[in-house]
Amino acid sequence: MALEDVARASAGARAMVLTVAAVPLLFVISGLAIRYAAFASVSEETGFEAYARALCRWDCAWYIGISEQGYERFPIPDHSNVGRWGFFPLYPMLVAAIRSVFPFPTILIATITSIACSYAACLVAWPLLDKNMRAYVLYCAFLLSGPFSFHFTTFLSEPLFVPLTSCVFLALKRSSYLAAGVSSALLSATRLVGVFVVFATVIQIFREHREQGGSTLSFPRWVLGRPDLLVAVLISPAGLFAYILFLYLTVGDGFAFLHIQRAFGRVAGNPLVFLWDGLSAVPTTGWLPTAPQWSALAAITGLALSAVLAARRQYGAALFCALCIILPLITNLASMVRYVIGLAPLTMMLVVLLSASRLIWLAALVLFLGACYFTTVAWIGGYLALV
């Protein structure tokens, strides 16, 4: 009887593993079908490569340039005076490495790699969602078949940023601090705001110290007695520091990724003023919000969800997400929708809230799948709120 129980348990475990793997795969297929239908409705071209090129909008072109040509030294005759240094190198390097093995067009390799990364992000989210199947299904639908799924399936930073963020928080949940440090280092080489995840690591270390009965005053001494914790914290910004060193040696300015922001129209200002200006940009015709209004609403929603994370005692995730929103908001509202939906702790919190009721969960799932078509058409058409 004991052996039969073990066999049944093993069969149940295998079924669960297959289900967890199959759910995101289903949404990979449905997302491709919906987005391709949207592409076919606005383009006379056919084929997967034409589809991949059509979805390669805005920053995607910069990442292709980095992957194929690297970072330029300034100035270069007959080239743009806006350098590529504002875009961090890890994902273009990964695509270039894969292209060296599979000699296909860059956008094809990047699109397939992005889909694979987003699929992996779903798998990592399963334990982070506490194996809540309804929330898991909704999260997979959001990433792979949802209204913003083109962000996670083309050559942008989000397809790598999301799974690496999830890996950090999964490692922290399991107190695997060295794994969290390595993932954090990779995250800081993917986007500048990735460096902020080190605060989540420090907060989790402090929480563990307090749970063991330690005091606040004894925390520094306790950390100094744990070399593994020190290494985890110190290597977290390694990706950013490596990029700074690279820029210093090749361009002569280690902070070129910051200084080039002015060429993209990003100048430091009051984030409250930017929010007010965005909300005040009312439409002159029609009833749909303008692009600045969508961006301002996305920032406010992101900060509100960060507050929900804090209220649920997920202080590290809350601080990380808030900083990832506030830093770009200091310059302007550009790309704010993409920045907010690319924060894995926020989207996981959102799907958990939407999954509390079966009816709301079903409505959200239908909305995600239905909106995918229309937002993809808008993305291909260059709608600024989605940039």
Automatic annotation (TrEMBL):
Keywords: Membrane, Transmembrane, Transmembrane helix. The chain crosses the membrane at residues 12-34, 108-129, 136-157, 177-206, 227-249, 294-311, 318-341, 361-386. The keyword Glycoprotein does not apply. The keyword Transmembrane helix applies. Signal peptide: none annotated. This is Glycosyltransferase RgtA/B/C/D-like domain-containing protein. It comes from Mesorhizobium wenxiniae.
